[in-house]
Design brief:
By secondary structure, the protein is of the alpha/beta class. The protein has 18 helices and 14 strands. The C terminus is likely disordered.
Length: about 575
């Protein structure tokens, strides 16, 4: 009887243990279910963080590209699981497959041409440079030859000539303006003396030539004023940077009437290109580290081009709009800008035809091709660059070649021809590009490099296709960007403007040297002539005669880049 009882007790104990374990298992299952629900709730957050990591990695790769210039790019056609998360629409997957196939099969056609043979020698010294002969002859004793006891004089049968560059440091000398005094020894009616010649800075000891040198050094060569003063010190001229800076700012203010004339002339053109770049001004109402702006405008046909810089403390609609208003009223032509929304407001307020910059769109796709880690993203960006935008630019290169060929024969390419070529070749490309972007945009992360490129294209589309209807307009703002580049290069050296007065003076002087350069004049020669003649220009006609395009008959420019005054 004891054994069955013990067996029953054992069974009861095992049953109790199993019940306890079952309870624990139920609790564990409940906790696991809760954890599972919590993890399901974290899935959207995880996907968001995964996308955020991808975007940050793109930014890191872009910064590395900017600083270290890495040019290698991965390529491939396999779609990984991460890609399926990012590109999960059938249209996008089809576009990826088509892009990968096109990239793998892409070939580059090189036009047939003749390559110029390279002689291996150095280029000849230009003919326009003056020559000074240095004779290296034999001593007279070696110019005789003895034959049969008779000494015969040698005959000169030719010569060997070698040329090398010679450089002389700039020379500084002092102008002594002497004005004799005259008086009558009999009547003693007073002293007679010639009036002072007009000077652009009458109460200073600087001449137009030194001012032209200072302005050219800073605003053309990008040298800070203190470095220019150090150069002058090596030539024995003790000039403090503060004094030189005051001269430059005063000259920048003195040329304002000329800037106003160019502003009025700029507003008469059928279209204006407009952009801006940042500038730091130390002393102003804003914090020293705040950004101020140089707003740059360009317009005018070849031979009468205008590039104007304007300092603006803040980038506001009112500031930009005021630059398009002149004495005759608001501007009423066409405006070519980048995608800054402020320009949309300005164009709407002034009722302007607003056209966008295709180069800015191309830059977005170029960035996507560099920073996107996934091969499919790179290939999609390359499709936009090479199959659509690149082909549009090929049409523009063809138009440029036609225009240059016409100009060589003294003719101009009709705008009707330009519009016809764009409608026949560029319009279908842009229509196909729009269809391609519309198909991709919904399934690409909007904050990715490729997503930003697609969004920019859609948001700016109406302005991006404006060049198709306006043949006088370029497809991009590259010309204006190139005019801003010297300012950006100089900014790396002189870093900031001390005051707002100095910033405005700098804007005026950058305008002068830029207008001289784009109209084929050497800036120093133009500034020298301007600073000599401006004090005597007392009428509007005299000021107009000092505009760069009116000085070509006076300032001689030859094909070798040598500049100077035309002979009398």
């Amino acid at each position: 009887m004891l054994k069955p009882l013990k067996h029953v007790q054992d069974l009861l104990a095992q049953n109790a243990e199993l019940a306890a374990r079952l309870k624990i298992s139920d609790e564990q299952l409940h906790r696991l279910q809760q954890e599972n629900e919590r993890l399901k709730g974290l899935k959207p957050e995880n996907e968001l963080l995964t996308e955020r990591v991808m975007l940050l990695q793109e930014e890191v790769r872009w910064f590395k590209e900017q600083f270290f210039g890495r040019s290698s790019q991965k390529s491939g056609s396999e779609i990984y699981s991460e890609q399926k998360m990012l590109f999960n629409e059938a249209e996008v997957l089809a576009a990826i497959e088509a892009a990968d196939t096109a990239h793998a099969a892409r070939t580059t056609t090189i036009a047939e041409h003749e390559r110029k043979a390279h002689s291996g020698g150095r280029e000849a010294i230009p003919e326009h440079l003056p020559r000074r002969e240095i004779l290296q002859d034999l001593p007279n004793a070696q110019k005789h030859c003895e034959h049969e006891g008779v000494c015969w004089a040698m005959e000169r049968i030719g010569e060997e000539v070698s040329e090398r560059y010679h450089y002389e440091a700039p020379k500084v000398w002092v102008e002594r303006q002497v004005r004799p005094k005259w008086a009558c020894a009999r009547c003693h009616q007073g002293v007679h003396i010639a009036p002072c010649a007009p000077q652009i800075l009458p109460k200073s000891n600087t001449s137009a030539s030194l001012l032209a040198y200072l302005v050219t050094s800073k605003f053309v060569d990008g040298l800070p004023i203190y470095r220019v003063c150090r150069q002058l010190l090596r030539q024995g001229v003790s000039l403090s940077p503060g004094t030189a800076g005051t001269w430059v700012n005063t000259v920048g203010e003195a040329v304002l009437p000329l800037i106003n004339l160019m502003h009025e002339e700029l507003l008469t053109n059928p279209f204006i290109q407009m952009d801006e770049t940042y500038l730091q001004v130390v002393r102003s109402d804003k914090a020293p580290a705040s950004d101020h702006y140089m707003v740059v405008r360009a317009a005018g046909p070849p031979g009468r081009r205008i590039v104007l810089f304007n300092y603006e403390p803040s980038r506001t609609v009112a500031a930009l709009q005021n630059l398009l208003i002149g004495p005759q009223g608001p501007y009423s032509g066409k405006l070519l800008t980048d995608g800054l929304e402020l320009y949309d407001t300005v164009a709407e307020a002034l009722k302007l035809v607003h056209v966008g910059c295709l180069q800015h769109g191309r830059t977005y796709y170029h960035k996507a091709a560099k920073v996107t880690e996934l091969p499919s993203g790179k290939n999609l960006a390359r499709v936009a660059l090479e199959d659509y935008i690149g082909k549009v630019y090929a049409v523009e290169r063809h138009i440029k070649e036609l225009r240059e060929a016409r100009e060589k024969s003294g003719e101009t390419l009709p705008l009707e021809t330009v519009k016809k070529l764009r409608q026949e070749k560029s319009a279908p490309l842009m229509a196909a590009f729009k269809k391609w972007v519309d198909a991709l945009l919904p399934a690409v992360p909007p904050q990715s490099a490729l997503g930003k490129a697609l969004s920019y294209t859609i948001n700016q589309w109406r302005k991006l296709v404006g060049f198709l209807e306006h043949p006088e307009l370029p497809v991009d703002n590259n010309y204006l960007e190139n005019q801003i580049r010297p300012f950006s290069a100089g900014r790396r050296a002189w870093l900031f403007a001390q005051t707002q007065h100095g910033a405005r003076a700098s804007a005026n002087l950058y305008s002068l040297v830029s207008c001289a350069r784009v109209n084929g004049l050497e800036p120093h020669a133009y500034l020298l002539h301007l600073f000599e003649e401006l004090p005597q220009a007392s009428t509007a006609e005299a000021l107009e005669a000092l505009l760069p395009w009116n000085l070509k008959p006076i300032l001689r420019v030859n094909s070798h880049g040598h500049f100077g005054h035309s002979p009398a």
